[in-house]
Amino acid sequence: MIPDLGPRPFRRTLGLLSCAAFAATAWTAAQLSPSGVGVGFGCLPSDQLREPRRCLDLGPGGELERQARAGETDHPLPTLRPDPDLGFIPFDYIRIKEGGAGVYPSPQDAASGSGSTSQLPNGFVFLSYGSVSDVDGGSVYATGGGYVRGERATKITPLSFHGLQFSRTPDRAFGWIRSGTLGQREPGGAEDWTATWYPLRTLVSILDVRRVGDLDWYEVAPQEWVVQTAIAIVTPDTTRPPGVEGDRWIRINLYEQTVEAYRGGELIFATLASTGRYGYWTQPGAFQVWAKLERDTMSGGVSEPEGGNYYYLEDVPWVLYFDQSRALHGTYWHARFGTSTSHGCVNLAPSDAHWIYEFAEEGTWVYVWDPSGQTPTDPALYGAGGA
User: Fold this and answer.
1) What is the reported pTM?
2) Spatial contact of 254 and 201, defined as CB atoms under 8 Å apart
3) pLDDT above 80 (res 20)
């Protein structure tokens, strides 16, 4: 499946007739591998772009490959089709409104607003629920701890975004737009906008990079430049990180806000993340997964009548603890992936967290780093961490 690269200018491609003619003469059943890609023979153009190391540099496919490496035409990333089941979450969620809410022993008590057994505090409170019913003209949510009046809650729909799974390590860097922007014809300098709008989370390939002042600018299409603050970059690096052992690891880039998974010397998965914000940093270093949970409830902070920093997050899915209470996990309560938001955990879209959960085992290495050097490394600054 070729990823959607979003709006982009016209690219020069080869004529369909020449491609068809080449395909008719260059292929026989004996030249196909079980995966459908030629081994040591000329390939169909689409396969040449995805698996150039398995094809001879011949014909239209070879010409497309040369154009792609020169940045003259699109070079599709060697992606695999995602498993749609990874996006399934076995829970439905509500957020409790400001001021808290009562919890009642029955739907009727909740509808009447009398006889509450407990009070949910004011704060950042999310619950999972099993059903919602209409009682006396009002909705009532059935949660694990009791019934909550519908007027005190809001339904939550988790983001359906998912990252990329690869058949091999991509040949060049790529990334996602994390702040919608127009392209510029030249990096830096005067604002010379193009007509191409890059929406939030648009996938782009990186053709070139230039430093202008204190900022990097990335060419995401010919004469289409985007400043580094608007894009989260993944630069494939199959070198085993310092402190990591074995041939399988997860790499978390705090500056770019991305997560990568490596196995057998290849990058096989990458996505956007949201790590610890200022004062709640995700600690750099090499760690190992010490607990793997299909779900967990996370809470912390202090509740105050006028706010505070209290949070209570029920049934957080696909949790991998790797540094005290810091974990990679699914996140249903926000969609700010690509920016630092959490209390130290590594927040992922639910389908991405599920993929990482299936990839990792207890003992899998997790390497956290900040290439900018801005994240503190003194262990004394780090407590247990949180969601």
Assistant:
1) 0.80
2) no
3) no
